[in-house]
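hey m, so remember when u said the tokens were messed up on ur end? i reran from scratch. heres the input so u can diff it against urs
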Amino acid sequence: MSKQLHILLITSNQSDIDRLSVLCVNYDWIIESSKNSFQAIQKIKDTPSYNFLIIDHEVGPLTSIQLLDYLSMELNLNMPAVLITEKEVHGDLNNEEPFFIINKPITEKDIMNIVSFVNESSENLKKGAKPYSLNYLKQLSDNNTAFILESLQIFKDSVYTKLNELKQAVKNLEFKTAREIAHNIKPSFEMLENDHCRVLCDKICYQAKDEEISALAEKLNQEYLNIIDELKKEFPKLN
């Protein structure tokens, strides 16, 4: 017997809801639906135990990426997500985003692939994914350990300095300077493929009100400290 899964389908298309219900008749799935991302957020707040989300590419008002960013940063929830999309727009999507992407109409084979994706994602979450990836540095340096360690040391020292400058700018109510600093350090976090920090930097730069920057800067600093703690476990020579 398959494991019971609690799924939230986010779509305004009734045919998607009907089709998924028919295809999942042999699976022990509890399927609920929301017509838009705001309604979905409220459902998730009320029931944070969903195993995964299925999101229509055309959902609004928040895009699928914005929705997952909100869940991660504001509710501290990281759930596997499946993106369903029309075939003609599939090629425009970035498959490196945190989705398993399938084309409409959903098929029986898609359901089997979704099950595999959710199982794998759940295992990764249990293991506790690192807050960084060295893939970019390994590719850039042909896996040169000395280069990687030197780059990590530069990351540690330069971002530490910039975060102190950010803290001081916020203290002095110099919010334009704070936004410029966040813009400046964003590539450093992108180098380590930390999407949480990337989004925090973007929020500080472009979205946050002045009075919101202090809390976002603190979140950014905490995530930086978490990255450094984990890096030191893998690279004891990092000082």
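this time it looks ok to me. Strands lie at 5-10, 29-34, 52-56, 81-85, 100-103. if urs says something different then somethings off w ur setup not the seq
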